[in-house]
Amino acid sequence: MLLSVRAAYRERLSRGEIRPDAAQEQALEALSRLEGDLNALAEPGFSLFRRPRGARGVYLWGPVGRGKSMLMDLFFDSAPVSRKRRTHFHVFMAEVHGHIDAWRKGDAAARKARFGQARGDDPIAPTADLIAEHARLLCFDEFQVTDIADAMILGRLFEGLFARGVTLVATSNRPPDDLYKDGLNRQLFLPFIAMLKDRLEVVSVRGPVDFRLDRLRGARTWLAPDDPDNSREFDRLWADMLDGASEPGATIEVLGRKLHLPRASGGLLRTRFASLCGNALGPQDYLAIADRFHTVFLEDIPRLTPDRRDSAKRFNTLIDALYEAQAKLVVLAAVEPEALYPAGDGSFEFERTVSRLQEMRSTDWLERVRD
Known about the structure:
Elements: H1 5-14, H2 22-41, E1 57-61, H3 68-78, E2 84-88, H4 89-105, H5 108-115, H6 124-134, E3 137-141, H7 148-163, E4 167-172, H8 190-199, E5 200-204, H9 211-216, E6 222-223, H10 228-242, E7 250-254, E8 257-261, E9 264-265, E10 268-272, H11 273-277, H12 283-292, E11 295-301, H13 309-324, E12 328-333, H14 347-360, H15 363-367
Parallel strand pairs: 1-4, 1-5, 2-3, 3-4, 6-12, 10-11, 11-12
Antiparallel strand pairs: 7-8, 9-10
Helix pairs in contact: 1-3, 2-3, 6-7, 7-8, 12-13, 13-14
């Protein structure tokens, strides 16, 4: 028999894996309430002659590292729903756009094969039908809206999902009122915010302790040289930060291009130097990465020679973007920062990057809060 979300939380407390936290307790109350509501609905006993009903969901928001994802994972495991899905919000929206594109471009046979229906020009209703068929409970990590294409379809899509009895749980760094803040045509997005606040219980999880920071505090975040011992420590830190979560990867769209990052989980990214600085990426790519991820694990940084000045310049730009975004950085490198690029075109300018890297490995930097 599955543990309830409250029992699972208490078990982790008793094992010393987490510490008591008043903000988490408030979130736990909301998730326990939802667990009971779902039990009362007796899913999957939906009548063919009655409109399916969902429960009032939960929206957990607050700074990174406060345990929002951990709480949602415990709830997801215990939720008394057979058809349920937990995913990153960006992954979900990429799939939604894929469904919409398939409906618009597909002929009747292709639509029938994918959606089980073929009539009509509006792709939102069949997309909502398809999603609701596979999941009565949707749990989204890192709920955020920055793309106008997402903003313009979310209201109608979620109105359709709620009407089909889908229940939503989400974590976010922002309260609902700050979603798509300063976005183009934001006034058209406001009804969606009102619907979220009506259909979900909004809970602030803003405890004083950043539990992910605790995992980095006291650890070395610049590991050099790149030897087996440091490689194992790098892997251990990454596993600690994941805390059992999967790595679904992420795809970021930049200026019409898609940048795929296979080792990503929520606001965590693990990638190699060659992937980010050995390829023809530019400032907009690095800004998008810095905006999307609060912690970056960067491995296999070599000692840069004069013939790799292009890679050194891209590394400069990447670090500038991460620095301005106050992102956390964990590195596995061949050498210490001051020995990375000692000579060559642009080595004088690289000294500023060295200074920033030294600051970003400091305790003061780790203590900074990024919303």
